[in-house]
Amino acid sequence: MLSFILWLVIGGIIGWLASIVMRTDAQQGIFLNIVVGIVGAFLAGLVLSGGSINNAGVNVTSLVASFVGAVVLLGIVNLIRRGSVR
Length: 86
Fold this sequence. Notes:
The protein is mostly helical. It has helices at 2-21, 30-48, 60-82. The longest helix is centred in the last third of the chain and has 23 residues, at 60-82. It is globular. The relative contact order is 0.18.
């Protein structure tokens, strides 16, 4: 149970930081920040094979990989919704 709560908190922080970088923070709430952080971490884990918070321990490398995955995810969503990456 504690790992699930930690997963939500870290996913929320990563999603929030990614939304600040991509300038979509005003459009998202805490729920979407958590979703973006977790899905971005999952995508980073698929691409980097074990470099995200989903399947590796919480360390600097996994946090950076998860953050990059969340930023890339927001870039893809912006590209689909607006036709351009901010």
